[in-house]
Amino acid sequence: LERHKQYPLGARRRNIQGQGVVFISIDRAGRVLKTSLEESTGSKILDNELMKMVRRAEPFPKVPIDISGEVFQFLVPVSFKIK
């Protein structure tokens, strides 16, 4: 996910930072079944980027056959910090 994260220019220019948590549910093929914002960054522009980041990352890698299950769910913390 990290390589698909883009710091929104408007947030960068206004020195907006934050950390949020995104929920992602995928199938065995790596297709996103559901995504939602579980914890806000405190900024609408950064929250929107969290959701866009998930869409850009799709499809996720296929789940190895030695791992059982059909649906896989993750809570992913994402941090936006200006360096």
Per-chain topology:
Elements: H1 9-13, E1 18-27, E2 32-39, H2 44-57, E3 71-80
Antiparallel strand pairs: 1-2, 1-3
Task: Describe this protein's structure.
It contains 2 helices and 3 strands, in the order αββαβ. It has a 3-stranded antiparallel beta sheet, with helices on one face. The radius of gyration is 14 Å and the shape is elongated. The mean pLDDT is 96. 13% of the residues are buried. Helix content is 23%, strand content 34%. It has 83 residues and is α+β, with helices and mostly antiparallel strands.
User: Which of globular, elongated, flat, extended, rod-shaped describes the shape?
Assistant: elongated
Query: Which series of helices and strands comes N to C?
Result: HEEHE
- Which percent band covers the strand fraction? 25-35%
Low-confidence stretches: none
Radius of gyration over all CA atoms, rounded: 14 Å
Structural class: alpha+beta
User: Treating each run of at least 4 consecutive H or I residues as one helix, how many helices?
Assistant: 2
Largest sheet features = 3 strands, antiparallel
* Nearest-integer average pLDDT: 96
Number of strands: 3
Approximate helicity band:
10-25%
User: What order do the strands of the largest sheet run in, or round the barrel if closed?
Assistant: 2-1-3
What is the rounded distance between the termini? 19 Å
